[in-house]
Amino acid sequence: MSVLGLSIQLSTHLQSKYSSLMERIPSAQMMIRFLLLHCLILSFMIASANTTSITTDQQALLSLKGHVTDDPANFLARNWNTSSSVCNWTGVTCDVRTHRVTALNIYGLNLTGTIPSELGNLSSLQTLDLSFNWFSGSIPASIFNMSSLLSIRFTNNTLFGELPPNFCNHLSNLESLFLKSNMFHGKIPSTLSNCKRLREISLSLNDFSGTIPKEIGNVTKLIGLYLRGNQLQGEIPKELGNLSKLEILWLQNNFLTGAIPSSIFNLSSLSNLDLSHNNLTGTIPDVGHLFQLQWLDLSDNQLSGSFPSFKFKMPLLQVLDLSVNGLSAELPANFCNSLPFLEELYLSKNMFYGEIPSDLANCSYLRILLLQFNNFSGAIPKEIGNLTKLEKLDLQYNILQVLDLSVNGLSAELPANFCNNLPFLEELYLSKNMFYGEIPSDLANCSYLRILLLQFNNFSGAIPKEIGNLTKLEKLDLQYNILQELYLSKNMFYGEIPSDLANCSYLRILLLQFNNFSGAIPKEIGNLTKLEKLDLQYNILQVLDLSVNGLSAELPANFCNNLPFLEELYLSKNMFYGEIPSDLANCSYLRILLLQFNNFSGAIPKEIGNLTKLEKLDLQFNRLRGEIPHEIGNLHNLEWMAFSFNKLVGVVPTTIFNVSTLKMLYLHSNSLSGRLPSSTDVRLPNLEELYLWGNNFNGTIPNFIFNASKLSKLDLQTNSFSGFIPNTFGNLRNLKWLGLNDNYLTSSTPELSFLSSLSNCKYLKYFSFSDNPLDGILPRAIGNLSQSIEEFWIVSCNISGGIPKEISNLTNLIAIYLGGNKLNGTIPITLGKLQKLQLLSFEDNQLEGSIADDLCRLTALFQLDLGGNMLSGFIPACFGNLTNLKKLNLGSNQLTSTSSTLWSLKYILYLNLSSNSFTGPLPLGIGNLKVLVQIDLSMNNFSGAIPTTIGGLKDLQHLFLECNRLQGLIPDSIGGLINLKSLDLSNNNLSGAIPTSLEKLLDLQYINVSFNKLEGEIPREGPFRNFSAKSFKGNELLCGMPNLQVPPCRTRIHHKSRKNNLLIGIVLPLSTIFMMVVILLILRYQKRGKSLPNDANLPPIANQRRFTYLELFQATNEFSANNLIGRGGIGSVYKARIQDGTEVAVKVFNLQYREAFKSFDIECDMMKRIRHRNLIKIISSCSNDDFKALILEYMPHGSLEKCLYSSTNILDIFQRLNIMIDVASALEYLHFGYSVPIIHCDLKPSNVLLDDNMVAHLSDFGMAKPLLKEDQSLTQTQTLATIGYMAPEYGREGRVSTNGDVYSFGIMLIETFTRKKPTDEIFSGEMTLKRWVNDLLPISVMEVVDANLLSQEDKHFMTKEQCVSFVFNLAMKCTVESPWERINVKEIVRRLLQIRDSLLKNVEGRRM
């Protein structure tokens, strides 16, 4: 009998049963009607539940298929269709009895898409495997309600989001959870312990943070726990020792700290334990109970103590890696007895000492043995020769071929019979030890030796002649042994000083004076880093080359006294500073003087003019100031003069233009001014290159240039030259490069006659006349230019008329720039002949007509820019053939149609079709443009929905679709555009909600969805914390935070149907109970005559958590001094634990100070207005007449000041950079992210608080000021900011502005990287922290940086030093005296991010 029939019978029975009762008790009639109605409703509910069938599963799977945006193998299209039962679909398994789907396995199909919530309707599903695909977005909540699931496998996708805290509420049967290699973040929920049946948990290679929940120790069935490659912190919970069945524990590549719990080493089932690449400390517990252990890796931590104790034999252990720790002990003599089958032993980079035990030979299966970078001493045991399976560094054939014991502290004589046990040795590395005695002749018995490296030791005696028998030897290195002092002075040695002296690497004293050495001083001497004394004077030395080193000093004033015959001096690319000594004139034989790329300052000494033999003088890239001395004109042999990239001023002396030997003259990028001499007497007949760009020269182009017949390169751009461009350029027959752009030059004729003269320049490859007021037309004669022309620029020159077709004669052209003019007519079809053309730019002209197909012949085209014209018609279909195209700009024209082939340009990076008249839907093919960085389709008439395929453009940074007629929902897939920075969908007809997936776009800086038909709540998290009301206006149904100028959202209850057994198992009993209550109330009403209670009389529920003084008094242990965590000028901060266990900070204002009242009001007002991830969050407040306090988020790591000056935990360079980026981001929000700028007024390290993830939060807004738009600054009558951090104008005039905050930030930036307070006692009088850094920074960064940050031993020293230098230079820009010259905080954020990104890029293996 059906359930429906049974329900009808029940209602009929009730009606007959109680018909007599209805007559006797009037009120019973009402009760029976209720019951009958109730039974009827339930009948329909039960019948509905019974209709669930395989159709439900089919719809769920089809929904998944519909959410797949890319199926490269057409797997779903071929296998999933409604013509067959879902049980026959590939990847789907059904129960043979119920025909319900029990397993879904679409592993490794490279599908792209999102997981639909409908998948949760597979109510019988036990196995769900979507691994090795490209699914993105978050996991729908419905998945976590599938109580039948036994296995979830989402490995290797791009899923993101946090795991919900109620993760295991409905997954009580779950046995396997694999979420490896995704982008999940947040904390690992402790409620995972509610999944009691879990056997495997894999959360590796995500971004999980926080601590490892100790509750995982309750999942006692666990055999595998994989958490590697996250950002987990804190200690390893000792409760993991409860996992008695655990076989594999992987916690490597996290930030775990503390000791290794000994309980883990009691897990007798453990076979694989990897805790490497963390920050674990303490000693290694006793390993004796891990009888099943095969792999133990504790490398790259901070472990100390001795080699672990193996009390019992470990017969299965094959790999033991303890490298890169601080272990310090002798190796136990018999440890190999406990590890008989050990194959790999890594002990490098510790501090082991003593002799290498001969017992190592008992580890007879050893293949890899790494002992380098320790302090081992004594002899190398000959028993190592018995390790016949050793295979280190490409060793093969199971016969020892390479022995590498280099870089230790081994100290002994080599055994006489060394090679007897190593007859097949091919490579022997013993360098960088302390071996002594003679090299044994027995080495000749290693007859297969190819490489023998014994350098950096203390070997003495003769080189044995028997080494000559090693006929296979390819490399022999015996250098760098004992030699330390070499005295050869006062002899008659002659010839050149040998460069091999550099091999005496321990040399401290080298005296070669009073000899007859000549030639060059070998630059290799600069490699003798231990050299303390070098005397080369009174020789006939001619060349000194110390270029490209890191030398940092002033040149001695009497430099030339000891080198009177010096002819060549190379000091370029160092860090020399100070003035160039005038004494250089005493090196009267100098021919070459190269000082470029240093930090020399001051004026160019006029005495250089006395070096009359000088042929080459290069002072580029320094900090030289003043005028060029006219004495330089005395250098009549000078061929090369380079003064560019300095700060020289004034007029160039005319005497220089009389140095007829000059070939190269480089004066560019200075501040030189005046007119150049135009006299016909000036002749530079040998001049080949003249670079004068980037100065302030004026007047006409001087005539002497046209007499320099050898001139090949002339660059006069970015000056103030005026007058006609001469027609005499044709005289320069060797000209290859001509740059005249950015001046005030004009043409003597409308036909630009100077172009015709260039036809004589047969070698010309490049010319530029851009940004000059030429006011003419392009002549047809342009086609007569040399065939060698590759690139020309005539941009923004007010050129009109058509583009001459003769331009196509220049068949070697690579780039044409004609943008920003008034060119009209059509684009010549003859351009198709320019087969080498890579860049064509006609933007911002008045060109008309259609785009000719002939442009498609330009197959090498890399960039095509036709935007800002009046082109019409359609985009040619053949554009799909331009496969090299990376940038296409057709914006601001009158085009009406695109071609489907356009969307096959899969390598295009930038596409602009904006401001045209395109219509129809956006093509699905937009998803093919996989490497697209920017696309602008705005200001057209596109309609229809935004294709979901757009979510596949993972590199997209800028998406502009505004001002179209787009409809439908904003695709959730846009949330997968993880690199997106700008998104504009405004002025369309989009509807529905703003997807919460956009909260994950952490790089999103700009969004505009205004003037659509959007509804629902505006997302609050991620980048949405920083957006303003203008991003969302014009959408009447949006709701959200008050600062967005939208109404608040109503609380809504979502009635969402679950599974049918939920309907029957919960709704039926509840509805029955409800009916019984109704009946009882009716009976009680009739019997007692009492009225039912009214909801209006029920007590209200408080909407907000409020705190009383008593609660705070108790939570702070009566405001105990033990709870005090900070004290300021007008209050104190206490740590508190409120009733629910939450830790908070309570800021109590000292009301004895009148300003405390105002400060409290300001902070409350400010924190109501502003919200940002890097601003401290106020949870609540407590306020009455005699007590005022704010309840704040508790920051476990305290203030930046506390951490910065801690003697135990030193902040590394990455932490300091990240903290200052956080502070700058908060400041950027205050200055630019609110309707009016807010000035903090008191930036300092004590007002920067650090949470448990070391994220910085700016606090203390007691002095903050909103700045009205009409004001640029405010005048503060009281000086309240902190001495040392306040801007000069604040201290002098009481004037506050955003520029004042920037100054304070700059001081704090300096303090963070110097670890010196601005109030330090060394700073007094005119010496301030800023000036101290400014004065010493040119000398060396090491003079000012915190010594904990930089070490010359660090392999990344140069990279980190450069980073710190950039930081200090940025701080100097923040702290310039004039507030108007300081950079703004947006630029600060950008530069800090660049500095950090550069550092990360160059430091290998850094985990973030």
Overview of this protein structure:
This is Protein kinase domain-containing protein. It comes from Citrus sinensis. Keywords: Kinase, Transferase. By secondary structure, the protein is of the alpha/beta class. Among the domains are: 3-49; 546-715, Ribonuclease Inhibitor (Leucine-rich repeat, LRR (right-handed beta-alpha superhelix)), CATH 3.80.10.10; 918-1050, Ribonuclease Inhibitor (Leucine-rich repeat, LRR (right-handed beta-alpha superhelix)), CATH 3.80.10.10; 1105-1194, Phosphorylase Kinase, domain 1 (2-Layer Sandwich); 1197-1408, Transferase(Phosphotransferase) domain 1 (Transferase(Phosphotransferase), domain 1, Orthogonal Bundle), CATH 1.10.510. Helices cover 15% and strands 21% of the residues. The strands form 15 sheets. The chain has a 22-stranded parallel β-sheet, with no helix packed on it. A 13-stranded mixed β-sheet has the order 2-3-5-7-9-11-13-15-17-19-20-21-23, with no helix packed on it. The two termini are 65 Å apart.
Quick summary of this structure?
This protein is an alpha/beta fold and 1408 residues long.
Features of this protein?
alpha/beta; Leucine-rich repeat, LRR (right-handed beta-alpha superhelix); 16 helices; single chain; 85 strands; 22-stranded parallel beta sheet
